Amino acid sequence: MIAQPRLQSRPHLLFQSPFDRRRRALLVAAAAVAALGALPGWAVAASDGFRIGIIGAGRIGGTLAELWAKAGHELLISSRHPDELKPLAARLGTNVRVGTPREAASFGDVVLIAVPYGALPQLGRDYAGLMAGKVVLETGNPRPERDGPMATPALNRGTGLASAEYLPGVRLVRAFTSVPYLALRSEAHRSGERIGVPLAADDRDALAVAARLVEDAGFEPVPVGGLARARDFDVGSPVFGRALTARELRQALGLAPNL
């Protein structure tokens, strides 16, 4: 498990000046590079970019695909109707291809899952074996009105722990779950203090990879703790559905500020 005091004490995750922002980005990138020691060598493509499989290229998945393509990552975007994604892939460039969810699960040693939460149990049954040992960023939020009876126990337990049961064997990170997708589109790489993206994971190396991808998308990673702490930014929490700066997010979550 991630020791919460250590996560709170990392001074490089929030800086105010442009110089310190560059320094922070370098430190996050260095941590991610160190984490690559646990990934196969072919997980990293040209220019130190990741190979990322995206399962679900709707509002969240499609937005992150655009941001990560601009950052130089190699992507395979997928949905139940992959032909419908060809215009998006063509617009994003030659580093982006289209495939099925199964192909996306196989392609990336980093996988983004951005599907309605009610689809997660079946997705886990179908593809968890293909994603075993991989860093998986999972973005879904249980909503009883959409996802049915499975949503309420997932919320009661906390989505970090619930998602881990649906995706056995993966190196899970809850990420990009609480910031509205419109803010992901409009606030990426903004000047001044960046919007914070809370992260929860039990795997430090997976957390480092996720932090780099948050940075590459133009936001500020805010590690909250292990998967059990993901409930702190679940649906119904004070921070859910809000585009808060990293400083505001830490304050709202009761995390120690980084000075």
TrEMBL record:
Q: Is the keyword Oxidoreductase assigned to this protein?
A: yes
Q: Which UniProt keywords apply?
A: Oxidoreductase
InterPro entries reported in the protein's UniProt record = NAD(P)-bd_dom_sf, P5C_Rdtase_cat_N, STEAP_metalloreductase, TAT_signal
Q: Report domain Pyrroline-5-carboxylate reductase catalytic N-terminal positions.
A: 51-142
Q: Does the keyword Hydrolase apply?
A: no
**Transmembrane parts of this sequence:** none
Q: Which PROSITE patterns match?
A: TAT
> Which Pfam families did the record assign?
F420_oxidored
Q: Tell me the protein's name.
A: NADP oxidoreductase
**What lineage is this protein's organism placed in?**
Bacteria, Pseudomonadati, Pseudomonadota, Betaproteobacteria, Rhodocyclales
